[in-house]
Amino acid sequence: MPQMAPISWLTLFIAFSLILLIFNFVNYYSFLPKTPEISQKTISSTSMNWKW
C-alpha cells in the first residue's frame, strides 16, 4: 500500500523473519531422535549372503 512508509515495511519484514527463524530453531532443537541400538547390532551381525 502506498500510504505506508518504507520503514514500516522493513520493520515488518525483520519482525516476521525473526519470528520464522526462532520458530524453526525451537522446532529443530526440541526434537531428539532415539538412537537405534538394536537395529545396528542386527545389521552388523547378519551376513550379507545374497540368494540369487
TrEMBL record:
Principal location class: mitochondrion
Transmembrane segments: 6-26
Matches recorded under InterPro entries: ATP8_metazoa (IPR001421)
Top-level taxon of origin: Eukaryota
Pfam families (UniProt xref): ATP-synt_8 (PF00895)
Keywords noted in UniProt: CF(0), Hydrogen ion transport, Ion transport, Membrane, Mitochondrion, Transmembrane, Transmembrane helix, Transport
GO MF terms held by the record: proton transmembrane transporter activity
Compartments where located: Mitochondrion membrane
GO terms under cellular component: mitochondrial membrane; proton-transporting ATP synthase complex
Annotated signal sequence range: none
Entry's Gene Ontology BP terms: proton motive force-driven ATP synthesis
Membrane topology according to the record: Single-pass membrane protein
The keyword Mitochondrion is annotated on this UniProt entry: yes
Family: Belongs to the ATPase protein 8 family.
Subunit comment: F-type ATPases have 2 components, CF(1) - the catalytic core - and CF(0) - the membrane proton channel.
Name under which the protein is recorded: ATP synthase complex subunit 8
Organism of provenance: Nemoura nankinensis
